[in-house]
Design brief:
- By secondary structure, the protein is an alpha/beta fold.
- It has 2 domains: 44-140 and 262-311, 3-Layer(aba) Sandwich (D-Maltodextrin-Binding Protein, domain 2); 144-260 and 328-341, Periplasmic binding protein-like II (D-Maltodextrin-Binding Protein, domain 2), CATH 3.40.190.
- The protein is built from 11 helices and 16 strands.
- Strands 1, 2, 3, 4, 5, 6 and 14 form a 7-stranded mixed β-sheet that branches. Strands 8, 9, 10, 11, 12, 13 and 16 form a 7-stranded mixed β-sheet that branches. Strands 7-15 form a two-stranded antiparallel sheet.
- A hairpin with a 4-residue loop joins strand 5 and strand 6.
- Helix 5 packs across helix 11.
- It is globular, with a radius of gyration of 27 Å.
Length: 344
């Protein structure tokens, strides 16, 4: 090849290299843009112990009001959800963007480890400050109470106290949910054993009255409706729901107070779709979300939203969950309960 030909060839090779480089950059750009689109469209993944049918109602209404944001749900009992989260954290990271369940002590632990993202929606301004925890790292978006319920065909005299569960006339006909599955049951246990006039003696009397420990509140509510149980300790909204469907059941507000069951919701740091997660939290606080809660039988956390039918209009006696005691004595509570009720 002559020097003149060599000079002519070099610009052609350079042009070819530039062309290949531009094609490569275009391909990378397409891949990057495609990844961005996938990320933007990633669903919000919620781990929860809430009733699946009710959460699905929230999901459908939320997705209708927020086009392009999908909500995926993993649902199980509180302790099962926690075990799943712990296993995923140990494996390097969870698939969850948000968590919503009845174990505020676990939320406190996550907050201490800086695993929850702080976010307080503008819609939450009217909610009582006591229900926005740790600077907005987790929130109470509606209120649930553990209370006493009864079968109106089996019980002649309406109960008035938690201690009616230990009345010998109901021996073998008393049901409660397991604190090893239900966060509401565990919160109730941890609060009552540290409550004056109750303590472990109350649970020993329950044992003496042949109480039946079921896995979940749902099972307790169903067996109350069928008459297998006469009186139970159960979350309030399930009883109102069964009563509205025609079951012979009702609940009371015990004179000692119904026990507030914390069921907070929070956004995890490192969420794959943080904006979608924030949108769902805003929805839960919105008037539309709060009204749907009331329709589902829950007590709204925002003032000015009409509550569900069956909730007394007068001021309710409420016992706040003793989270400090529960957090300090968690394993002791489990061990004593397991031994007392001879559970595996």
């Amino acid at each position: 090849m002559t020097p003149e030909e060599e000079i002519m060839r070099r610009p052609m090779e350079v042009a070819k290299l530039i062309g290949l480089l531009l094609v490569g950059l275009w391909v990378l750009g397409v891949i990057w843009a495609g990844s961005a689109e996938v990320s933007a469209a990633a669903p919000v993944t919620l781990y929860t112990s809430e009733s699946l049918d009710k959460v699905n109602e929230m999901k459908l209404d939320f997705e209708k009001r927020n086009p392009g944001v999908a909500l995926n749900i993993y649902r199980s009992g509180t302790q099962v959800v926690i075990s799943k989260l712990q296993a995923e954290f140990q494996a390097g990271g969870t698939l969850a963007d948000m968590i919503w369940m009845a174990d505020i002590d676990y939320f406190e632990d996550l907050a201490r480890k800086d695993l929850l993202a702080a976010y307080t929606p503008p819609e939450a301004d009217k909610a009582p400050a006591k229900f926005k925890y740790e600077g907005g790292r987790y929130h109470e978006v509606r209120l649930i109470f553990n209370t006493v319920a009864y079968n109106t065909l089996r019980v002649k005299t309406r109960p008035s106290s938690w201690k009616d569960l230990t009345d010998p006339q109901f021996k073998g006909k008393v049901g409660v949910a397991s604190p090893f599955y239900s966060g509401a049951a565990f919160s109730t246990l941890g609060t009552q054993v540290n409550l004056p006039g109750f303590g472990w003696e109350f649970y020993r009397k329950l044992k003496g009255n042949a109480v039946v420990v079921e896995q979940s509140n749902g099972t307790v509510a169903k067996k109350l409706a069928t008459g297998e149980f006469s009186v139970v300790s159960v979350v309030d909204f399930m009883v109102r729901e069964a009563k509205a469907a025609g079951s012979p059941v009702d609940h009371i507000w015990p004179k000692e107070g119904a026990i507030l069951v914390p069921t907070p919701v929070g956004i995890l740091k490192g969420a794959k779709n943080p904006e979608g997660a924030r949108a769902f939290l805003r929805y839960l606080y919105s008037p539309e979300g709060q009204r749907l809660f009331a329709q589902q039988g829950y007590v709204p956390v925002l003032p000015g939203i009409e509550g569900p039918r069956g909730v007394p209009s007068e001021k309710l006696e409420v016992v706040l969950t003793d989270q400090a005691y529960i957090g300090k004595h968690r394993e002791e509570l489990k061990a004593k309960y397991r031994e007392l009720f001879e559970l595996k």
